[in-house]
Amino acid sequence: MPRAIVITGASRGLGRALAVEYAAPGVALALIGRDAAALGAVARLAEAKGARVRIGRIDVRDRDALSAFLVETDEADATDCLIASAGVTMVTPRAGAVEDLTRAQDLFDVNLNGMMNTLAPLAPRMRARRQGQIALFGSIAAFAPPPDSPSYAASKAAIVAFALATRALYHADGVSVSVVCPGFVDTDMTGSFDSAKPFLLSAEDAARRIRRGLARRRAVIAFPRRLYYAARFQQLLPEPLRRRILLAFRATARP
After folding, report:
1. 109: Cβ–Cβ under 8 A, 6 or more apart, which residues?
2. pLDDT of residue 245
């Protein structure tokens, strides 16, 4: 079991659930997020389970502040598990509309650049120690891109590709890289839009699945399996049929 864990996006959603899931006596948690009050609440839950907690109220787009916090954290407790779960989504405002592409850069700044900002200070240190795990967050949407959230799907597809390439690269250094690809999880992010949400899971159930996958050092931790296999299968279908299936699952942002 990892003893020094860094989690971004820890104030809510899957990050919060993972912080509580991993909290235990002897575990040092570094929790990063933008909401100080929510982070404090998560920290209290983790401390009640016996963990030592360090909080960083930092936007993952703030490279300098994030790097300083991560280096300081790593020097205090050598990080053996980095979970980069911070992310945002974007869907079309109404049925038949297209997404606001002027906001796409902000989404990529969080989902992609934020992930790179998190990885850059710690990955060289973990490789130098020749141990540790890194969990990056993709999505099943990377394999079946929803027509109503193309920028989100593209950002997650990029993370999947980056994670698999980095896994191969870091293997020789003793560092395991996994990419987590959830389906629909009952979080604020999933609640921000209306659509069909088959096989919806609780955040706590998802956190347990992620922990098991990381313990087994899986390359791709995708769940629920039925939705993942369906997403991979639709990639083999003729494009007109695939398009018809994807358009059957329309999503619109909630006000």
Report:
1. 61
2. 86
The number of domains in the chain is 1
Answer left, alpha or beta for residue 239, where phi above 0 means left and psi between -120 and 50 means alpha: alpha
Q: How many CB atoms lie within 10 A of CB 219?
A: 14
What amino acid is encoded at 196 in this protein? A
Cα–Cα dist 16/22, whole Å: 10
Answer yes or no: are the C-beta atoms of 72 and 58 closer than 8 Å: no
Distances in whole angstroms, Cα of residue 207 to Cα of each of 16, 19, 22, 26, 103: 9, 9, 9, 20, 29
Tokens 């992609």 found at: 112
Helices within the chain (DSSP H only): 13-22, 36-48, 63-76, 104-108, 114-129, 150-170, 203-215, 225-234, 239-247
CATH number of the domain at 61, please: 3.40.50.720
Tokens of 70: 């991560």
Residues of the chain where predicted confidence (pLDDT) is lower than 70? none
Residue-level pLDDT at 124: 98
For residue 67, give its domain range: 4-253
The pLDDT value recorded for residue 75 is 98
Helix (H) or strand (E) holding 6: strand 4-8
pTM for this structure?
0.94
| Number of residues that this document lists for the chain | 255
Q: How far apart are CA 196 and CA 59, in angstroms?
A: 31
Question: What is the pLDDT, as a whole number, of residue 116?
Answer: 98
Instruction: Give residue 246's pLDDT.
Output: 85
pLDDT digits (tens, 9 = 90+) for 200-238: 999 999 999 999 999 999 999 999 999 999 999 999 999
- Burial group, residue 185, by CB count within 10 angstroms (0-12, 13-18, 19+): buried
Both structure tokens of 113: 């650049």
